[in-house]
Amino acid sequence: MIYKVQGLDSGGRFVSVELVAPTPKEAEQLGSERGLQVLKVTSPRSDWAGALTRMGTSKFPLLLFNQELLALLEAGLSIVEALETLLEKEARAETRHVLKAVVTRLHEGQSLSASLESQGAAFPALYVAAIRSSERSGSLVESLTRYIGYQMQVDQMRKKIIAASIYPALLMLVGGLVVMFLLIYVIPKFSHIYADTGRELPMASWLLMKWGEMIESHGGMLTSIFLGGLALAVYALSRSDVRGWLRELLWRLPFIGDRMRIYQLSRFYRSLGMLVSAGIPLMPAMDQVSGLLDVRLQARLAVAKNHIREGQSLSQSMESSGLSTPVALRLLRVGERTGQMGGMMNRIADFHEEELNRWIDWASRLFEPLLMTFIGVVIGAIVVLMYIPIFELAGSIQ
Q1: What's the average model confidence in pLDDT over 9-32?
Q2: Confidence band, pLDDT 50/70/90 cuts, at residue 395
Q3: In this structure, are 45 and 176 located in the same domain?
Q4: Which residues lie below 8 Å from residue 264, measured CB to CB, with a gap of 6+?
Q5: Contact 131, 119 (CB under 8 A)
Q6: How many CB atoms are located within 10 Å of the residue 335 CB?
Q7: Domain shared by 275 and 355, yes or no
Q8: Mind listing the pLDDT tens digit for each residue in 270-316?
Q9: What digits encode the pLDDT tens for the residues 205-253?
Q10: Could you say which of 55, 77, 94 is where a domain stops?
Q11: Is the same domain home to 25 and 132?
Q12: In the chain, how many domains are there?
């Protein structure tokens, strides 16, 4: 299979190559043999199949699982008893399968973290790392509480972004359907009426009527072209290189690119703060959360880790690598002086998420009226152009 390997070369430049290997791990090894510091391995030819597989797979309710597990542990049950209780009351077959596999491995003598790690699709690496750290410190309840707070914060930010996108998407959908109805059904009817009158039409109305005649005479061919273009667009979006190009385009936009960077940094600092607070050393924790960043930011993180290995402080490394903001830099320095690095990272995430919330509210209030105005102008222009000849005819009669 062909894998896309992305990483840094010996000169510190970001490169992307395609390598043939049977597994992603061997593709990563081939990239290392070529002198790359591998950041990410993807399979560009399996994106479509992977998307279909994910569509048919139900997501494990990790947040609900953690809340119920925490309640049972605080009630005095052991971890095995708590998991068996959750297994007994679970009705969904997929969730029962995951819980049963975890309980079986616990009965075999494996640790909780190893049992959860065996069900990798249900339990992310960050969660497993936090549980593994709690096993060493004996603070499972504290780790579960911390992860629940982390997950709720992340979900809240994601829901905020989705909620802000729903109304504009509906506006564009409804507006597009109205415009298509006018162009495909209404205008061809008007073109017959104006053809029978024999009157000369204004240029804009004449072009609109010609469009109606073309729709009526070549509707099948135009429909086939439209459906083919739609299928081509869906296929293009299923490819990682096309999605990467679109992300690159968004990153270059003045306002959106900056907000995307701040969103990724806030998620990065919140995840890193959770792991550091759980007792995981800084460098392994940074390795765990590097996958949350965009590829370009992963390259900067690799540079920052090299600086830390050379003896620089975390704040200096993040500043020189472009992975901090003025607020983040100040709070990191406070964390270095006080030793409360995990708490300071959570404060960084809180500050920037609040900033993003304000920006999303402002952008929604600005964009939605502009979008409604644009759709209204387009629909109104089509209607006016259809009725201009009628107005002229009425004027000539008078």
Answers
A1: 70
A2: low
A3: no
A4: 292, 293, 294, 297
A5: no
A6: 21
A7: yes
A8: 888 888 888 888 888 888 888 778 777 888 888 899 999 888 899 99
A9: 677 777 777 777 777 787 788 888 888 888 887 777 777 777 777 778 7
A10: 55
A11: no
A12: 3
Whether residue 389 sits in one domain with residue 359: yes
Q: 32: domain range?
A: 2-55
Per DSSP, 17 falls in state: E
Rg of the chain (C-alpha set): 28
Closest by CA position to 65, among listed 133, 112, 135: 112
CB atoms inside a 10 Å sphere around CB 311: 8
Average pLDDT over residues 3-22: 68
User: Measuring CA to CA, which residue among 32, 25, 43, 30 is closest to residue 9?
Assistant: 32
- The overall average pLDDT reported for the chain is 80
34: confidence class by pLDDT, cuts 50, 70, 90 = confident
Give 2's strand partners.
20
Q: Which of 209, 207, 205, 200 is nearest to 396 (CA)?
A: 200
Q: How confident is the model at residue 13 (pLDDT cuts 50, 70, 90)?
A: low
CA distance 203 to 224: 29
User: Is residue 204 within 8 Å of residue 384, measured between CB atoms?
Assistant: no
- In terms of Cβ atoms closer than 10 Å to its own Cβ (0-12, 13-18, 19+), residue 99 is buried
Backbone φ, ψ for residue 15 (5° rounding): -135, 155
Tens digit of pLDDT for each residue in 70-121? 888 888 888 889 899 988 888 888 888 888 989 998 898 888 888 888 887 7
Domain final residue pick, 116, 136, 151: 151
CATH number at residue 196: 1.20.81.30
Q: b vs e for 3-29, b when ≥16 Cβ sit within 10 Å of the residue's Cβ?
A: bbbbbbeeeeeebeeebebeeeeebbb
On whether both 270 and 333 belong to a single domain, the answer is yes
Judgement on whether residues 191 and 278 belong to the same structural domain of the protein: yes
Task: Compute the residue count for the chain.
Answer: 398
